[in-house]
Amino acid sequence: MMQHSVDNVAILRQAIDSAIESLGGPIHKTITWYMNSKGVFSDSKKIDIDSFYSNLKELVGPGADLIMEETWQHLQKQGFAGHNFEPRSSPLEKIQKVMKIGESA
User: Fold this and answer.
1) How far apart are CA 100 and CA 96, in angstroms?
2) Which CATH number goes with the domain that contains 59?
3) pLDDT grade, residue 4 (50/70/90)?
């Protein structure tokens, strides 16, 4: 069970990285540096998605939601789709739900 959790974290980190990379090199470096300075990316085996989102919102404002949407799209490509969500679930809520579900999958 613990192995799935670590795998999910790696997949989530990869999805976040892909979403940030799609914005371009300088923005990717800025966001990565900022997250490292806040300790969000300090442990490669876990990530607090709530902390990531709040720090992202602090850094890029409304653009944070676009980055979360892009992250969600990357996760869907990895097979994290098909769960039942409320129609108005935010990308953050969807990511939180699949990361919890994925731990027991």
Assistant:
1) 6
2) 1.10.1200
3) very low
The amino acid occupying position 43 is D
| C-alpha to C-alpha distance for 92 and 45, rounded to whole angstroms | 19
What's the rounded Cα separation, in Å, for the pair 105 and 23? 32
Q: Residue 14 half-sphere exposure, CB side, CA atoms within 13 Å? A: 11
For helices 2-21 and 25-37, angle between their N-to-C axes, nearest 10 degrees: 140
Domain hosting 31: range is 2-102
Ordered DSSP codes for 4-54 = HHHHHHHHHHHHHHHHHHTT-HHHHHHHHHHHHHTTTTS-TT---HHHHHH
Q: Which residue has the tokens 């990316």?
A: 41
Report d(CA 27, CA 87) in Å as an integer.
Answer: 31
Q: What is the pLDDT of residues 34-81, one digit of tens each?
A: 999 999 988 877 889 999 999 999 999 999 999 999 999 999 898 877
What's the predicted TM-score (pTM) here? Answer: 0.84
